[in-house]
Amino acid sequence: MRGTARGLLELTRPGNAIASGLLTVIGSFVAGIAGGEAGLLLPVPPEFRVAAAVCATVLAVGGGNAINDYFDREIDRINAPDRPIPRGAVSPRGALAFSLALFVLAVALALTLPALAIAIAVVNLVALVAYTELFKGLPGVGNLIVAYLGGSTFLFGGAAVGGDLSTVGVLFALAALSTFAREVVKDVEDVAGDREEGLHTLPIAVGERRALVAAAAALGLAVLASPLPFVVGTFGVVYLVLVLPADAVMCYAAYESFGDATAGQSRLKYGMFLAMASFVVGRGFAVV
Ligand SMILES: CC(C)=CCC/C(C)=C/CC/C(C)=C/CC/C(C)=C/COC[C@H](O)COP(=O)(O)O
Ligand SMILES: CC(C)=CCC/C(C)=C/CC/C(C)=C/CC/C(C)=C/COP(=O)(O)OP(=O)(O)O
Ligand SMILES: [Mg+2]
């Protein structure tokens, strides 16, 4: 039983779910927490809406990850044998029921938010459910969807408080470009299992080297655009100082991916978390 509970928690990829919740908080603060009441079904105060949006994000990401592992249960015998379903900690039916329960809770919380936030939540939930079966096997399409999903957390947080989405839009682009790069590197890592399953991911369709060049180009664009929250947005100079080391880690990771995709995608994630920290601290210093 304890094994099952641990397996269920692992299915949600709690680190990613919590990080996504943090991106939502950042979106709310950057957009302006005192934002408007337009399009609300219920008269919910903005502070409660931030909490509801964060919890909806954490639950939706947890559900999205669990349903991905449900659909990937065969392929993960090759690509990820230690995941909870292939190692027997959780049954496929249990994983599916768990993910649906998380989605229902996420929708219930999203209904307390303005219309734009509800629309983002609905689009994201459809994308999360459809991703593995419909889009993951089309070259680049699945990667673009996960990139959109990662970036959309900022928009969701901003929309939850009815705030100004201009700087939030820049954060969306940075997160989406860097997530696209990492997803392509992850596909290079997974080529063996994906090929056996008949998927046409980007590296299978165009070759590993070209796919890695596309990933490096997307990451390069993100790094070049990373000063924008300072230049055209509301971020202070502390942000600029902190984002530079994050940029350096991500550039090195993209280079490393050409020799070792597993090490590259893992370092890329570390760089993205550093960038996320620079958003939090840099934005905080702009306020005081
Ligand atoms: C250049 C620049 C400043 C970029 C910004 C980078 C930034 C802040 C990116 C946000 C990405 C982030 C921390 C996302 C949270 C976690 C998340 C939603 C990850 C996506 O997960 C999908 C992935 O395929 C799951 O795999 P794994 O992580 O290997 O378990
Ligand atoms: C704001 C709201 C309502 C939702 C947020 C939605 C977000 C941020 C989702 C993040 C991306 C996510 C969790 C995608 C889930 C599916 C996925 C790509 C899981 C990764 O699975 P792996 O098994 O590592 O990779 P592949 O299955 O793609 O090969
Ligand atoms: Mg998977």
TrEMBL record:
Subcellular location: Cell membrane
Listed transmembrane segments: 21-42, 48-67, 95-125, 145-177, 267-286
Reaction(s) this enzyme catalyzes, per UniProt: sn-3-O-(geranylgeranyl)glycerol 1-phosphate + (2E,6E,10E)-geranylgeranyl diphosphate = 2,3-bis-O-(geranylgeranyl)-sn-glycerol 1-phosphate + diphosphate
Coiled-coil parts of chain: none
Highest taxon, organism lineage: Archaea
GO terms of biological process kind: glycerophospholipid biosynthetic process
Any one of the GO CC terms: plasma membrane
Pfam families the record matches: UbiA (PF01040)
Cofactor needs: Mg(2+)
Membrane topology reported for the UniProt record: Multi-pass membrane protein
Alphabetized UniProt keyword annotations: Cell membrane, Lipid biosynthesis, Lipid metabolism, Magnesium, Membrane, Phospholipid biosynthesis, Phospholipid metabolism, Transferase, Transmembrane, Transmembrane helix
Pathway terms, separated by semicolons: Membrane lipid metabolism; glycerophospholipid metabolism
Keyword Transferase: yes
Any one Gene Ontology molecular-function term assigned to this protein's record: magnesium ion binding
Top EC category: transferase
EC number: 2.5.1.42
Function, in words: Prenyltransferase that catalyzes the transfer of the geranylgeranyl moiety of geranylgeranyl diphosphate (GGPP) to the C2 hydroxyl of (S)-3-O-geranylgeranylglyceryl phosphate (GGGP). This reaction is the second ether-bond-formation step in the biosynthesis of archaeal membrane lipids.
Family: Belongs to the UbiA prenyltransferase family. DGGGP synthase subfamily.
Name assigned to this protein: Digeranylgeranylglyceryl phosphate synthase
Lineage: Archaea, Methanobacteriati, Methanobacteriota, Stenosarchaea group, Halobacteria
